[in-house]
Write a structure and sequence with these properties.
This protein is an alpha+beta fold. It has three domains: about 10-75, no CATH class; about 110-190, ATP-grasp fold, A domain (Dna Ligase, domain 1, 2-Layer Sandwich); about 195-305, D-amino Acid Aminotransferase, Chain A, domain 1. It is built from ten helices and twelve strands. The strands form three sheets. Strands 7, 8, 9, 10, 11 and 12 form a six-stranded antiparallel β-sheet that branches. A four-stranded antiparallel β-sheet has the order 3-6-4-5, covered by helices on one side. Strand 1, helix 2 (about 40-50) and strand 2 (about 55) form a beta-alpha-beta unit. Helix 8 (about 235-240) crosses helix 10 (about 260-275). The longest helix has 21 residues, at about 55-75. About 30% of the residues are buried.
Amino acid sequence: MPWNDKWQQVPAIEVIGRALAQLGKPSAMLNQTLRPVSQKSRDIMAACGVPAAFGGLEAVVRALGHISRWSAWLQAQTTAEQPLPVMPTSAWPDSERATLDYLASRGVPVIPAKLARTRGEAVDFAAALRAPVAMKIASPDVAHKTEVGGVRLGLQGDAAVGAAFDAMLARVRQARPDARLDGVLVSPMREGGLEILVGTVRDAQWGLTLAVGLGGIWVEALADTQLRLLPVTPQDARDMLTSLRAAKLLQGFRGSPPVDLDRLARVIAAIGDAALALGDSLAALEVNPLWVRGDDVEALDALAVWADAPSSTH
């Protein structure tokens, strides 16, 4: 399509305009390469009867692909399962443990953990599990526990657990003397499997948005996430999982069992509903990681972030 005053004679475009008019269908002219659209271009299009012009080939084909997928999605919505209404809650979780307890109350499977307030309790809890344990500082004031030495993994034996308890409290007190410390969470280690990120964040225009991707270190390394507006159905969540570039890992990889996608999708949808139920004061809710191995699914770590301070009713 001409775009400057060098172009005066446009017989080819006149022919194209007459041909498009005879089609009797919505139509447009396609340029092979990307070209600017100026007032000169629009004047020629109007004079020759060309309703629209696009270019180049690669950009147009990509756009048509997006239109096709969007149209298919709209068509699927006419028969798709619709999300059920979410009942609001007065809960206001302000720590990892409180957030995990809240998620459990909404049907999300969470890792069993006990709060040890003394060294002796930590040793007893770990011994009862008869397996390596993870220990994490419990504090409503410490969101990023690893940064203050508040996480230890793979601990086993009374001496190791007791020493880790004492050292962890000392490190955190030194790093965050202002923080309220409830104690140390003791939970079993989870080996193998995959770590999934499930997070919600409130967009100023769109509201709560759900993000799903590989969790742990892979979140930033791969930048492989899928986004949907809440609420979502389990089928929506399943579509998000299968749309990930790393979806092959969910099918079983190098000896790991295939993930039960239907169960995982139900859990993801439940996390989304749990976020919606917390109301407009919720800024974000993140479960990272959501551990999955076969049909075993557990939230290992979670945190709610609030836009407003809790009111007296919470």
